[in-house]
Design a protein that fits this description.
It is a single chain. The chain is an alpha/beta fold and 412 residues long. It has 3 domains: 2-278, 4-Layer Sandwich (Purple Acid Phosphatase, chain A, domain 2), CATH 3.60.21.10; 285-371, no CATH class; 374-410. The protein has 10 helices and 17 strands. It has helices at 21-38, 57-73, 89-93, 96-99, 146-149, 158-176, 293-301, 331-338, 374-386, 392-410, and strands at residues 2-6, 14-15, 18-19, 42-45, 78-82, 104-107, 124-128, 134-141, 182-188, 223-227, 233-235, 238-243, 260-267, 270-278, 285-292, 317-324, 345-353. The chain has a 6-stranded mixed β-sheet. Strands 7-8-9-10-12-11 form a 6-stranded mixed β-sheet, with helices on one face. A hairpin with a 2-residue loop joins strand 2 and strand 3. The longest helix is centred in the middle third of the chain and has 19 residues, at 158-176. It is globular and about 70 Å long.
């Protein structure tokens, strides 16, 4: 059996105010071509399909057009997609009844039956091979919010609630599987030891539970398709537990990441291979600097000029990083003047001051709001108000309030 593993599409994302629909369209066209070329039996999309809980209409059209085209191209292809922490679970599941007619399974939330028993049946998806036989069972684990795994019957411990979900789902899958059928999990979570892109991955700290242990995934599971971390990587160096990473760089911090889809081969319940399929970069993200203003302007002057025959949608996004001795009120004007006629699109100017240290001047350093998590902002506000670092209990209380707000935002 052959699987494709991808995640963190973030359809509808903008880069410093610039929409990226063209790049997502190019990726989805490429992915359709790879599906046609490699003929996998299943496509696993491990969460953060959209960038926000209320994605723009164009982003939703991109997703559903892709699903229709993939089904028309390969009628036997199974697609399993789960909600990530950026997604609304209810929105992901809303068209589920229609999508099942396209062999697509959309899971946004977990549900419980009486007495704390997980409704495991709806989270277990049969995956068929080219002969139409069930060759694997997919354990679908959307991002688990506290309200879904804690409560009067489940207890108040978030990590314990997550552990119950994994144990009950794996137990149900082991009862259902037959000889030589593989168990494949798809999950959206921050696993312990994973490398994070600080610019673009929303923190999953809930109370004191940030990273989940890999032991949640029993050895009986042949492959774990993870989403959330944008850098492709193994968890604890295990070949079977993987982040595919995002298909496009979602911030300038991700310029040097490989962006890919993973192709997974299984022989019965044995994992045979995991091979990356690099995603062509439709639009480059380019950084100039950091450098003093005079030197920087010289570098900008050397950038290529616009070729009228080139597609303007493919012009690189540009971040300019300048080192200043003193404030420059006309900084943007100077940079924009230097870029006139250049084949780039300026999206960000980052300024820092020469001689600034990380000690006494810490509070004066420029910090971009978009790079700070809600926890960061809360911690700073607490320290400014009370003169001492925030304690763990206050952080835990804030995290619960934040989750309540995010759940309210999810309501369609």
């Amino acid at each position: 059996m052959r699987l494709f593993h991808t995640s963190d599409w973030h359809l509808g994302q903008s880069l410093h105010g610039q929409e990226r629909d063209f790049e997502h369209a190019c990726f989805l066209d490429w992915l359709l071509g790879q599906l046609r070329l490699r003929q996998p039996d299943a496509l696993l999309i491990a969460g953060d399909i959209f960038d926000t809980v209320n994605p723009p209409v164009k982003a939703q059209e991109r997703l559903y057009d892709f699903i229709v085209q993939a089904h028309e191209q390969q009628p036997k292809l199974d697609i399993v997609m789960i909600a990530g922490n950026h997604d609304s679970g209810s929105r992901i599941e809303l068209p589920a009844a229609l999508m099942r007619r396209l062999r697509t399974h959309a899971l946004g939330r977990v549900h419980w039956l009486d007495e704390g028993q997980l409704d495991a049946e709806r989270l277990l998806i049969p995956l068929t091979n080219g002969r139409g036989k069930v060759a694997a069972w997919c354990l679908a684990l959307p991002f688990l919010r506290p309200a879904e795994v804690t409560g009067p019957q489940l207890g108040d411990d978030y990590l314990q609630g997550i552990t119950q979900v994994h144990q009950q789902l794996i137990g149900a899958a082991q009862k259902k599987r037959k000889k030589d059928q593989a168990l494949v999990a798809i999950s959206h979570a921050h696993m312990a030891g994973g490398a994070v892109s600080e610019d673009s991955e929303r923190s999953l700290i809930i109370g004191n539970a940030e990273a989940l242990p890999a032991r949640l995934f029993d050895k009986s599971i042949s492959y774990v398709a993870l989403g959330h971390l944008h850098k492709p990587q193994k968890v604890n160096r295990e070949n079977r537990i993987r982040y595919s990473g995002s298909p496009i760089p979602l911030s300038f911090a991700e310029i040097n990441y490989p962006h890919q889809v993973l192709e997974v081969e299984l022989e019965g319940s044995e994992l045979v291979s995991v091979e990356p399929r690099p995603v062509p970069r439709a639009v480059a993200l380019q950084r100039v600097g950091p450098a003093p203003l005079g030197e920087l302007l010289e570098q900008l002057a050397e950038l290529p000029v616009i070729d009228l025959l080139d597609d303007p949608n493919r012009q690189p996004w540009l971040e300019v990083r300048v080192v200043l001795d003193e404030p420059q009120p006309d900084l943007r004007q100077q940079i924009e003047t230097a870029l006139q006629g250049k084949a780039v699109r300026l999206v960000r100017i980052s300024a820092e001051y020469a001689g600034r240290t990380n000690s006494e001047d810490d509070d004066l350093q420029f910090v971009e709001l978009a790079q700070m998590t809600p926890q960061d902002l809360f911690s700073r506000a607490w320290e400014q108000a009370y003169g001492n670092p925030v304690d763990e209990q206050a952080l835990a209380d804030f995290a619960l309030l934040l989750q309540d707000v995010q759940l309210e935002e999810e309501q369609p």
